[in-house]
Write a structure and sequence with these properties.
9 helices, about 210 residues, mainly alpha, globular
C-alpha cells in the first residue's frame, strides 16, 4: 500500500495530466455537443471503464508487451485509429436524428448504451494510455511497501476516480454547449460536421503520430 505522501504526490501529478485535454476528453466533449449531457456523462463512464481495463493490464504486465513490441503496439494503434475514423464517417453520414431536437438529453437507453460501448473501445484501443501507466505509475511504486501489482491497482483506482471527476466536468460543460446550439437550428448541421471532423482528426492523429517512443 503506498504511503499517504505518495498518494498525495501521485494525485497531484495525475490531476495535472488528466486535466490537459486529450483524445478521451475531446471524444466526451464531441458526444456532449452532439447528443447532450446524458450521452456525454455515459461516455465519461465508458472512458473510465476503459481506464479500468488498462489498470488491470498494467497490474498483470500486459503494458510491458506493448512497450517492448512494435508489432503489438501498431496493431492496437491502427485498430484504435480505424475505429475513430469509422465514428467520424458515420457521424458525417448520419442524418440529424431525434436527439437534435429540443432536448438531446432525452436520448433513448439503446443510444446511451451505444455511446458507452464506443467510449470504452476508444480508450481501450488507445495504446498510449497503456504506456502512460507503464511509464508513470512505476515512479510511485516502492518495493518495500508490498507487491507491485497491488500498488498499481491502488494508484490506478486513484487515477480512475480523478479522471471520472474531470470527465464529468467536461461532459456537463459540453452538454450545456450542445443545448445552446440546439436552440439555433442553423447550427445543427455545423454541429454534426464538427463532431465528425473531430473523430476523423483523432483517428488520423492516432494513425500518423502514434510512435511509441
Amino acid at each position: 500500500m503506498p504511503t499517504t505522501g505518495t498518494l498525495l504526490a501521485f494525485s497531484f501529478a495525475a490531476f495535472v495530466l488528466i486535466a490537459i485535454p486529450g483524445p478521451n476528453l475531446i471524444y466526451i466533449v464531441a458526444r456532449g455537443v452532439e447528443q447532450g449531457r446524458s450521452a456525454a456523462v455515459v461516455s465519461a463512464l465508458g472512458v473510465e471503464t476503459g481506464t479500468l481495463v488498462h489498470v488491470a493490464a498494467a497490474a498483470v504486465g500486459l503494458s510491458a508487451l506493448l512497450a517492448s513490441s512494435d508489432i503489438a503496439f501498431d496493431i492496437v494503434r491502427y485498430l484504435g485509429a480505424a475505429y475513430l475514423l469509422y465514428l467520424g464517417v458515420g457521424t458525417l453520414r448520419r442524418r440529424q436524428g431525434p436527439t437534435a431536437g429540443a432536448d438531446a438529453d432525452a436520448a433513448s437507453a439503446p443510444r446511451l448504451r451505444h455511446a458507452y460501448r464506443q467510449a470504452v473501445l476508444v480508450n481501450v484501443f488507445n495504446p498510449k494510455v497503456a504506456l502512460f501507466f507503464l511509464a508513470f505509475l512505476p515512479q510511485f511504486i516502492d518495493p518495500a511497501r508490498g507487491a507491485a501489482w497491488g500498488q498499481v491497482l491502488v494508484l490506478g483506482v486513484v487515477f480512475l476516480l480523478l479522471g471520472l471527476c474531470v470527465d464529468i466536468a467536461y461532459a456537463s460543460a459540453a452538454g450545456a454547449i450542445g443545448h445552446w446550439l440546439r436552440q439555433r437550428p442553423r447550427a445543427l448541421r455545423w454541429q454534426r460536421y464538427t463532431s465528425g471532423g473531430v473523430y476523423l482528426a483523432l483517428g488520423a492523429a492516432a494513425a500518423l503520430t502514434g510512435s511509441r517512443r
